[in-house]
Specification:
Length: 694
Amino acid sequence: MPDTASALGAPAERREGPQKVTGTARYAAEHTPEGCAYAWPVPATVARGAVSAVDATAALAVPGVVEVLTHLNAPRLGKPDDATLSVLQDARVPHRGWYVALVVADTLEAAREGAAAVQVTYAEEPYDVILKADHPEAYVPEDSDGTSGEHVRGDAEDAFAAAAARVDALYRVPPLHNHPMEPHAATAHWQDGRLTVHDSSQGATTVRDVLAGLFALPKEQITVVSEHVGGGFGSKGTPRPHVVLASMAARATGRPVKLALPRRQLAAVVGHRSPTLHRVRLGAEADGTLTSVIHEVTAHTSRVKEFVETATAATRIMYPSPHARTTQRVLPLDVPSPSWMRAPGEAPGMYALESAMDELAATLGIDPVELRLRNDTQTEPDSSLPFSSRHLAECLREGARRFGWSERDPRPRSRAEGPVLVGSGVAAATYPVIVSPSRASAHAYPDGSFVIRVNATDIGQGARTVLAQVAADVLGVPLDSVRADIGNSDLPAAPLAGGSCGTGSWGWAVHEACTRLAARLAGQRGQQLPPEGVGATADTAGEADADSGYSRHSFGAHFAEVGVDTVSGEVRVRRLLGVYAAGHILNSRTARSQFIGAMTMGLGMALTEGSTMDAAFGDFTEADLAAYHVPAHADVPAIEAHWIDEDDPHLNPMGSKGIGEIGIVGTAAAIGNAVHHATGLRLRELPLTPDRVL
Ligand code: MOS
């Protein structure tokens, strides 16, 4: 094959694709060291209280069961920053599903049978699991990074009262679950005081560091391998209880231990998107110019730790308005701990804001694309910093052109095909540019091959491929000659695959290491390289995390066409089209795949996904894929993702912004707005299931 694929931006194919489709790629639970035992956890069956007694007699009598760990006999751990990792350390039960025991056995079947036989007695306590915006314990959390707390400009209430046009609406996004295809799993192995763990994680460096603290070991004595990861969407962004339990059980039994969490247990222990209750008030002049923006959000957190679904963050940077107030509130309940799920904060926040913008457009009789164009800006409203680049208007115009927006009759219920009402909607999207310091190394060998090393993680996005492209581009060599070693904590330390920051962060370090290597090679021109090759390293600390002086965000525009069946109430998405401005796109094939994947997740958020906190049990009702409906192929139309190439010198040496999350951000609002256009109905609670539509 000609080497056209080495250039940045080229559609190079995923390097590990053949391994994945032939089943030879090995995931965390597919490593089985000699003598490996299997673990199965026991979740609490009460919503709040304490374990008062554990009877493991029957469990230990199951043939093959070797150990039952509880808070009474489990190894003591150091105190983690993340209290969800303090497993089996005390008798507290902070929520239903919290782990109270772990059974280890010679076989998976015996472990499972043993877990069912463990008798746990609880001292139950009254509990509270229902999110209410006016709950007396809700509070405004501290704002450490601008995404939380309360931000005020001018006098938003007065300006709202005086506005020529007003929208005042409540929106609700339910709890959502990440449900990656590969469940959370770890295989842990202690040998001579060294711990080796294969973990399904979005960042093995963090897992190693956290395990070092928990088990009081030097980092050098731990290796965490996350070679292939079957999705995470944030739920594997931090270490989860499974990796701690597997490591504990391996230490306690002296055998390697494998633990793959059953899918039905995931909802309680790997994080979820907190439900959010929104009140959005928009005030505008008759020409659509916003004069007041008020966005108030209440999210829940657990009693174990504070996690804030920062759903007002995007509202602070989207539209200029002289008067604005954004208020984030959080309510601790006896629920599982929420955590990151794709575009945490932006996805639910922009659902509410962009739905309200559509309501404002309808109130004013202004086209919703035009309303957004009239409220565009090159200065971030909240900080007054200039955007390093903001091509929202270009995304809206390009999307409208490609979608055929100008042919749209703006009147609701203006298009019917028999009992099916057809409509279209638009919404804007944004996601911050996050960059973290990373290390990397690059080596050249006498046979003309190159190896780059960085503890990046491939969670499906194609990290090996794009990092090899970055290296090949800097070195000016064929892509095939570059190997990328990733997914192991013994490699140069790197941040997680999360916050859409992976490629920009790792790529920066790879770029720097390769630039240095190229300089060394230039100095040795004509000489044979030594057998061990020559290398260069890079560490972008102090550089990647320096203040750029700019507000840096990706922007995008989403367009949706839906058909709403007035007999069944079913909403089908017929077309989805996204246009993004996210710096330079480094691999058009894998980038398109990420955009489309996130838009599909947004489609699920709009129409099928949602979880119910059951007040009677204090638990999520939808615990598996039979009840929690992610979109199936038949739900997903041909999705189009396009982009506008941005030249932004304030990002990183590749000029890239993150692309993993923005695709979900505006999708649900665009679909909801299309449902309004089709039916004339304003549905402000997701998902838009038939019971709500009829
Ligand atoms: Mo993403 S929710 O930061 O993995």
